Amino acid sequence: MAGLHLLSNQKVEFQPFFIGSVKVDKPLLQAPLDGWTNEPFRRITRELGAPLSVTEFINGLDVVHKTPNLPQRIAFDNSERPIVFQLFDDDPERLIESAVILEERCHPDVFDVNMGCSARQVANRGAGAGLLRFPEKIQKIISGLTAKLSVPVTAKIRMGWDSDSINFLEIGRIVQDCGAAMVTLHARTRKQEYSGKADWSAIAALKSALKIPVVGNGDVETIADAERMMQETGCDAVMVGRAMLRNPWIFAGYDFENVPLDLFRMTCRKHLRYNMEYYGDHWGCVTYRKFAKRYLSRLEVSRENMQTLMTTDDPDTFCRYFDVLLNGEAL
Ligand SMILES: Cc1cc2nc3c(=O)[nH]c(=O)nc-3n(C[C@H](O)[C@H](O)[C@H](O)COP(=O)(O)O)c2cc1C
Questions:
Q1: Which stretches of 108-260 are DSSP H helices?
Q2: Considering only CA atoms, which residue is closest to atom 4 of ligand 1?
Q3: Longest dimension (CA), the chain
Q4: For the segment 33-72, what is each residue's pLDDT rounded down to a tens digit?
Q5: Spacing, Cα 5 to ligand 1 middle (Å)
Q6: Confidence (pLDDT) at 3
Q7: Cβ atoms of 178 and 146 closer than 8 Å
Q8: How far apart are CA 139 and CA 168, in angstroms?
Q9: How far apart, in whole angstroms, are the C-alpha atoms of residue 115 and residue 38?
């Protein structure tokens, strides 16, 4: 495949690396995205070449209280190994307890702790990026997890709570000293959420300060961006978030506009099929709409046709319409 060929001929060599004992074949990683990186989508990214899977974040509260939505949050296909379970919580003991429960039940290959979520209901509760304000809690969490789990533990952080409290170097060192095997830095503060530009110089600074692998994250949209981030920061791997929602083919080495149309169509159809198998026909089509909208932005689809597709409830009709639009025809 041309894209994979391209990957092996990059200016920056994409080398395998290790998260503790876990080998990762390629340093281009799928980011966890709540509401998106469910099992069907992750399988698609894996088939296109993403080297590991990361779940959407899993709430420690849901694990200890066994809430009804938990099974879907933790479901994965064995073909997805290595699989990273990402946890969030504000209470160190509960977070550790939930990791122990999940390790026994599901045997994921890595646990990651979310210290970057900026959503109000998470961060203001002291979880996600809220943890960055409590380095002593982070110390408890990472040392507790590394003591109790038999698999590597990693952390995903931001630069700090706001521009007056930038502390990613301090947090990175704590996490490393407590035994974590890797740190990912989304190079923004919590206050920035997703605004402004990610500050890649922070990724370079963290890489210089730590011995464990550092993953850079923020605003990588193309293969050239990924190469540039590796070159400019020296990071061990690059994590791609929002861009992969439109372009999972980035893991095969393609920018969106260059994906060969037959591969593009085949992947879109397969993703819809996986979604329907996973969620059932009706819900599978409904939850696929947001992907369909992004994928179809590659083609010239009229606003009316898009609107018709987005409001089609019947699964057979949805599949038929989607197929017609994928073929570049009008409804
Ligand atoms: C809709 C959405 C959901 C997200 N969910 C998570 C999550 O569950 N866990 C996490 O660590 N980060 C989450 N993030 C942050 C991304 O993983 C990533 O750090 C961020 O989007 C920056 O990378 P990008 O510029 O490549 O998108 C989410 C981001 C978005 C936009």
A1: 120-123, 135-148, 168-177, 200-209, 223-233, 242-246
A2: 33
A3: 59
A4: 999 999 999 999 999 999 999 999 999 999 999 999 999 9
A5: 29
A6: 39
A7: yes
A8: 14
A9: 20
Helix axes 281-296, 303-310, angle to 10 degrees: 160
Residue 109 tokens, joined: 């290959």
What Cα–Cα distance (Å) separates residue 27 from each residue in 14, 162, 209?
6, 29, 20
Output the six-digit token pair for 104. 């026994």
Residue tagged active-site, from 106, 117, 268, 285: 117
Superfamily covering domain 2-256: Aldolase class I (3.20.20.70)
- Residue at token pair 């169509």: 265
Length of the chain, in residues: 331
Cβ atoms of 191 and 161 closer than 8 Å: yes
Cα–Cα distance for residue pair 24/45, rounded to 1 Å = 15
Displacement of CA 255 from its chain's centroid (Å): 18
Residue 87: strand pairing partners: 58, 113
Question: What's the gap between Cα 170 and its chain centre?
Answer: 24
Q: Is 285 a catalytic residue?
A: no
The residue extents of the domains of the chain are 2-256, 260-326
**CA of residue 226 relative to chain centroid, distance:** 15
Rounded distance, CA 151 to CA 169, Å?
A: 24
For the segment 180-237, what is each residue's pLDDT rounded down to a tens digit?
A: 999 999 999 999 999 999 999 999 999 999 999 999 999 999 999 999 999 999 999 9
Does any ligand 1 atom lie closer than 6 A to the CB of residue 156? yes
Nearest CA to ligand 1 atom 10: 32
Question: Which secondary structure element, helix H or strand E, spans residue 53, and what is its range?
Answer: strand 53-54
Angstrom distance (rounded) from CA 327 to CA 121? 42
